[in-house]
Design brief:
InterPro entries: Peptidase_M14. The protein is α/β, with parallel strands linked by helices. It has nine helices and ten strands. Helix 4 links the parallel strand 3 and strand 4.
Length: about 300
């Protein structure tokens, strides 16, 4: 979509009000089912992990449980790790990668680290293959106490009593072609700003915390993922999505200041994965496998280098 084009909701240059949000919402169709794709796998895993319902969303009569799975043998003397997926509902491999990790690999960490996994933070967005929630709010810019996204505040409340144990948080995301064709134009329209075209990187990359960077940790994760899929190169400005590449496949954001999910624990080791599912060099299963490889590498590194604070 060129900079001169307008998103088909609202008036150019004017932020949306309730009428525009309702118009946007009317355009969103249910394209897949949380209760068919995700919920049965969570329920099956509840035989091995404690199933925790940490909230419920009620959007115009459509109810979605907010669910996490945690180690049944949770040990206060052990470090803990948080894995989150589906903060942006359309980023499929985050949801599927979190579930695949639980099904295939989480058992090997029993007795060494406590696990808390929220596979699908934004189930309404998952069903609509959308970035935002029902209220046209991006949960991943609103992880702050008292914020407007219920998905975000519920997760914060779940994690709050466990923060002292947390040594790791890995938040699973994707960067897709639809970011440029749909979601960034929608953001510009919603906020009454002009749309500025950008570039979508071809490959996997990570987002570190610029306020508390852990470069060796990020490179350990990159090295593991590189055995599964290719890593995004920097563009001709030395950037990925407008941010300077600080190391192979790594950029940095101020996580807490931006209200990003990966900033909610205060853990020593945090990262946001970004898989590129639209690449001709990657399959959906390869994207899921890349997320699993990232989780395992992050856990292994944290176990070797950290103790709870």
């Amino acid at each position: 979509m060129p900079a001169s084009a307008f998103y088909p909701v609202g008036t150019p240059g004017q932020p949306w009000g309730p009428a525009e949000r309702a118009q946007w919402r009317a355009r969103q169709q249910r394209l897949r089912r949380f209760d068919e794709d995700v919920l049965p796998r969570i329920e099956a895993l509840a035989e091995r992990f404690e199933r925790v319902q940490y909230g419920v969303l009620d959007y115009a009569g459509e109810r979605y449980p907010l669910l996490a799975l945690r180690s049944r043998d949770w040990n206060p003397s052990l470090p803990a790790a948080l894995v989150t997926g589906g903060v942006h509902g359309y980023e499929t491999s985050g949801v599927m990668g979190a579930l695949q990790f639980l099904e295939q690999h989480a058992g090997s960490y029993a007795g060494r680290i406590n696990l808390l996994v929220a596979p699908c933070v934004n189930p309404w967005g998952y069903e609509r293959i959308n970035r935002w929630n029902f209220d046209a709010i991006d949960p991943n810019r609103n992880f702050r106490a008292g914020g407007p996204a219920l998905e975000s505040t519920a997760l914060i409340a779940l994690v709050a009593p466990l923060k002292a144990q947390m040594v790791l948080h890995i938040d699973l995301h994707e960067t897709t072609d639809s970011d440029e064709s749909e979601f960034r134009p929608a953001l510009a329209a919603r906020d009454g700003q002009p749309f500025q075209p950008g570039l979508i990187p071809d490959g996997f990359y990570l987002v570190d915390d610029s306020d508390h960077p852990q470069p060796a940790f990020q490179q350990a994760v990159i090295a593991a993922v590189e055995r599964v899929t290719h890593i995004a190169p920097a563009d001709d400005k030395g950037e990925i999505i407008g941010s300077a590449v600080v190391a192979h496949g790594v950029i940095e954001y101020p996580l807490v200041a931006l209200g990003l999910c990966a900033g909610i624990t205060g853990a020593r080791f945090t990262t946001t994965t970004e898989v590129y599912p639209d690449s001709p060099r990657a399959t959906p299963q390869q994207c899921n496998d890349a997320q699993v490889a990232a989780i395992r590498a992050a856990l292994d590194y944290a176990l070797q280098h950290a103790q709870p604070s």
